[in-house]
Amino acid sequence: MSRYEIAFSGQLVPGAQLELVKANMAKLFQADAQRIAQLFSGRRIVIKNNLDAAAAEKYRSTLERAGARVEVIDMDMPIEEVELAPPPPAEPAPAAPAAAPAAAAASGGATAGRLQVAPRDEYMAAFSEVDAPDFGIAPVGADLQDAKPDAEAPRVDLSQFSLAPVGSDMGQAKADAAAPPPDTSHLKLQE
Fold first, then answer.
1. What is the per-residue pLDDT for 153?
2. Is residue 173 part of a domain?
3. Is the N or the C terminus of the chain less surrounded, counting Cβ atoms within 10 Å?
4. Which CATH number does the domain housing residue 36 bear?
């Protein structure tokens, strides 16, 4: 059984007015203006996922009546894997620096350490001339952060301070004497 997701990227159905659509979406989702502004930011936002076909269609039709154009995407659709071309064989360094541009032109513009992408179909052919660095993958457990020097302790001049002898009074504040009790001789208890 296929599962679907509903995604929105800020597009409106033809003829819809932006302010009216925002008001409709605020009413549908019971959301404040800040959340609605996030929906219309232009980024693709998944509104709901793991829906069956009937629920996905219900969401799509409700949101389109509100004026928002959404995508219904089959989550179970297989994902195509991109096969990368093998790295070019290592070539010896040219003898003269002037020969480097000629060697790069002869090899189709590829240089050592650059990724070669073989197009798998006509859509990927547009990316065959992309010049991208061939980044490797670090081994498991490798430290990828640059080394930082140890922090130095701050230099503080403490020569003007001295220690008091053990048991000496360091000038702690003495507690104030208790105030005298109030005069209550003029008060009488009545029965």
1. 87
2. no
3. C
4. 3.30.1390
